[in-house]
Amino acid sequence: MADVLAVVEQRDGKLRGVSREGVTAAVGLGEKLGGSVHALLLGPPGISQAASELGRFGAEKSLLGEADLLSDYHPHRYAVAVTEAVKSGGYEAVVFGATAQGKDLAPRVAAMLDVPLASDVTGYDVVDGTVTAVRPVFSGKAFATVAFSASPVLLSIRPNVFQAREREAPGTVEAFAPQGLDSGSQGVRIKEFQASGGESKDVAEASIVVTGGRGMKGPENWEVLEDLREALGSDAALGASRAVVDAGWRPHGEQVGQTGKTVAPKLYIALGISGAIQHLAGMRTAQTIVAVNKDASAPIFQVADYGIVGDVLEIVPRLAQEVRKLKAGD
Predict the structure, then answer these.
(1) What CATH number is associated with residue 288?
(2) Starting at the edge strand that comes first in sequence, how are the strands of the sheet with 142-147 ordered?
(3) Which position among 55, 187, 242, 281 has the lowest Cβ density within 10 Å, counted as fewest Cβ atoms?
(4) For the stretch 32-50, what's the b/e string if a residue is b when 16 or more beta carbons lie within 10 angstroms of its beta carbon?
(5) In a domain, 203, yes or no
(6) How far apart, in whole angstroms, are the C-alpha atoms of residue 271 and residue 293?
(7) What pLDDT digit, counting tens, does each position of 160-194 carry?
(8) What is the pTM assigned to this prediction?
(9) How far apart are CA 75 and CA 259, in angstroms?
């Protein structure tokens, strides 16, 4: 048996976008391995509706772990629960999302199972029965193909790389009651969760990302980016370079780059960003990159599909205006 398990995430009782992508990626891997695809959803009581949604994306069976101890993400409790599900199900492969939660959880599960983990995966295959995964290395300058020599195979997928696909089969939901959630959990205590302000999408999940750098000249000019984001619609999110975050202009949750979030949207718009290698590491796998910078020799233009040399404070308002005209059908 070569079944595959997708470990999915929810927030406030709703599935995160990367969860649907994770199930889709697991379906593709399951087809190559010749096994079934299951999903595991952990959270507080009352999230059964979110679990039932997983069947539409290919999960033949969804394991639902509802418990007060799982209401909020807890590193040890979630790792114990996932490890127990993997062992009891005898899965050949486990798929996580390479989100903030996934990047914390997947290595813990790998340590408990004593198997390797391929993180931030952008592709996979099965060659002569061996699972291989493709992941960026050297800050995204190259891609490495790694082969797994242990079972189960653990990998985390980069958000927005595997497009979620709906299926006709509804799937089933089965209760999952993990044991030992309190065992050893005293070593980690969650004191507080702080939600970022605003209602815009998480930069790691948005299909369009509008990111500003030091070329914006100051936080007072961010309303220009806000206007463009609003013109692009609800699928767009605001991002920021590390220099901007370090200067206190924008919150850390918006930071894109090697020390921030890795994004792979359909459209990435870099405004006033020079393109340091640390920033490129977090966004160079975007499908289409548009850059605006007054320095024609800025490194960002080397990876951009479209580039404009000029002042962002003059160009961006015109760009927002043209987007609105286009969406209005003018």
Answers:
(1) 3.40.50.1220
(2) 123-127, 130-137, 142-147
(3) 187
(4) bbebbbbbbbbbeeebbeb
(5) no
(6) 6
(7) 788 888 877 778 999 999 887 876 666 777 777 76
(8) 0.80
(9) 21
